[in-house]
UniProtKB/TrEMBL annotation:
This is NADH-quinone oxidoreductase subunit N. NDH-1 shuttles electrons from NADH, via FMN and iron-sulfur (Fe-S) centers, to quinones in the respiratory chain. The immediate electron acceptor for the enzyme in this species is believed to be a menaquinone. Couples the redox reaction to proton translocation (for every two electrons transferred, four hydrogen ions are translocated across the cytoplasmic membrane), and thus conserves the redox energy in a proton gradient. Residues 143-444 form the NADH:quinone oxidoreductase/Mrp antiporter transmembrane domain. Pfam families: Proton_antipo_M (PF00361). Its EC number is 7.1.1.-. Keywords: Cell membrane, Membrane, NAD, Quinone, Translocase, Transmembrane, Transmembrane helix, Transport. The chain crosses the membrane at residues 21-44, 51-70, 94-114, 126-143, 149-166, 178-199, 228-249, 261-284, 290-312, 324-345, 351-375, 396-420, 432-452, 480-501. It catalyses: a quinone + NADH + 5 H(+)(in) = a quinol + NAD(+) + 4 H(+)(out). It is a multi-pass membrane protein. It is found in: Cell membrane; Endomembrane system; Membrane. Belongs to the complex I subunit 2 family. HAMAP family: NDH1_NuoN_1 (MF_00445).
Amino acid sequence: MTPDVTTAAAGTASLVQSVDWVAIAPPLIAAAVALIVLLADLFLSPSRKPLLGWITIAGLVAALASLAPLRTGSRSTFCLTANPDACSYTVDQFAFVIQALVLGGALLTALLSVRDTKEKLPAGEFWFLLLSSAAGAALLPAARDLATLVVALEVASLPAFALVGLKRGDRLSSEAALKFFLSSVTATAVMLLGVSFVYAATGTLHLTEIATKLATVPGPLGTVAKTGVVLTLVGFAFKTAAAPFHFWVPDTYVGAPLPVAAYLSVVGKAVGFSGLILVTVVAFPSYADVWGPALAVLAALTMTIGNAAALRQSATRAHSAVRLLAWSSVGQAGYLLVPIAAAAYSSGSQVGATVAYALMYAVVNLGAFAVAALVARGKPLNRLTDYRGLYAERPLAALALAFFLLCLAGLPPGIIGLFAKVTVFSAAVDAGLGWLAVVMAVNVVVALYYYLRWTAILFRSPEAAEQPAEAARPRVPAPLTVAIALTAFVGVVLSGVPQLALHFASVTLF
């Protein structure tokens, strides 16, 4: 072999990278099972379609189990050969916790959906879309370049459009899917424009390299870089349902199947906030003076609008229970934004408070939606008044829902909700954002009213005309019972060991 050929061969070999299959296993398993479900749907008879749901549940359990080797340390893959520190995929503490959250949320959504796919929804399409979205959601927190980040975000979002509109012949479902689609496409377009500006100013897509090069952007490109940062943040503000980009939330939650609304409220929110944390704390630290004040104002605006709208929900309006949970999720998004804004004024470690709060919110909000799905089986309008006397009819479900609502309010016995709020409040105070801490405290007090009002309705005596005959009471599917019991158990454990909130508050990206 001549020297020139030998040199060329060596150069080619240096471009070949080894793949850390253990690191990429969680999203890879979810994607592989999605393909299996899609192919199996072609060959299974209609009577055997329920098998697809159990394949999905098994796949999500396997994806969760694949996280075990990743619980300590940090693993990276798809790195640049010229700069091994610049990688496209990194599993650290932050990525591990968020991946566990989104896969666990997808698993609980699957449990809530088993009965619906037998009765109302096309099984094959539903399970394929859910797994595809979960694969994108699991990929995103480990993404460390803007291209992977955008692709993961869209893989998580695009199937969600179809999931929202999957109730065939339902006008509300079609309208919800269209509104969700249009708002999300607009957000993506704005975000891609911002990403292109950032790339033009820095010449790289890797987050760590962007952070280095943004600090030394030449004067003529400074405006381009700053515009790119702002547009990228606006795109993620849509994804996180931050005000004033929250308008799609209530109608989307009402029109979507209840398990899908639960999925969007938890997994969709985790995906949006993960991306926001990565671009701000990892990629744009040198522009903290731009995104810090902007996120602080967005946090105050979001929690205030969300809680004010939740207060105005009429108890007799159709779907008022789901609407209240939707507006509550907007208010909770405001709390989640606080530590990210605080990171601009102190250090990136503040984002751990967002992780701790997101974990608490995911568990109890999924539980609240699970009980709402149970009530909707007998009372499809799902009004707040439909929950009157729930304790007399289904005492365990009423106690579980009361516990979930008290956790969201931050009241005992939902100690985990209190500790999570204190952790977020402390992040604002430590960063010198006293005014934001005051706004948050006022909003927490305001939210107590509608959470406690709903809790009180559960224990009121039912009207005589509303008391159902025992034989007419719908049977609760076993998977739905498991979902309620599992979320209640995890919530009680977290409330019994509130130090876990402080543990997750210490999660960092470094």
